[in-house]
Amino acid sequence: MTATESKRLIDAKDDHKVFKCTLNIEVFRFVAFVNILALFAVGKIVSDLYVFAPEVPGTKILGMVPTGTHDVTDTKIYQMFGFNHLCNVVDFNPSKEIAAIMVFFHVFPMNCFLCLSHMRTYLAYKNKEVPKWLLTYSTFTTPFCVIATGLIHLWFVNGPQMEYPDGYGFIGHYLPYMGFQISLALVAIQQLHYYIAIDKIPFGISPALATFYVRFVIVVTLLCQLCVLSIMMGRPILDSHAGGVEGTWERKAFVILGDVYAFTGLIGPLIFSFADMRNGDTNTITFEHQ
To answer: pTM (2 decimals)?
Structure first.
């Protein structure tokens, strides 16, 4: 291109409109986690009101008298594990229908974050801010995480009570949740190493401590999945169903493990994403006609 041609093109673009949006993409992850926690909170309230009979007669929920008739022990999950999992609060209508609607407000911002996070990693690599292996990691894990996040709604399509031909039982119910768990661990790994590379770990946490936390999340995730899969295969690592109503130490250990995972896998990312979206690491998205 000659100098004359270049000037002509610049002059032609004097009135060219460009739309730019500058933001910290962690806003999307924060909103996604707020919404998934809201989903479970609403599911808990609705299930306590309209699905399960109160354990203590006369108990009111938010000032209202519950009308549910199901016993909390009369679920497929309780029969398998000896206690109910968190997802039990969205396994029955009407909470199931409400959750199926609300889950969109987790899926959409989370997938926005995942796609933008990969673009951010690519840009950081081009600017020599992150190592090449992190870009390679993101390239392979992002598609899986996007798909796993997009299929969360199958929790509600395949309820644990629904056997073939109406559903695929607990296996069809658990596999989407397992994919969700794996995706959260993969995202945690990427975010850890990205913020270590650009020296923006929140709360002044050292890289060593941040690495320990993420590895702890991975270990807890794997332990939860192994315990569930072993029960599904009839060879329980923790036989949480043994001991009848009172249960054994194995049930208590499994319950504690599940609670630890719920905190580290859901509450932890919410806290860290809130801090990260205020760390000044912003990106500008530009839209223009060529």
So the answer is: 0.87
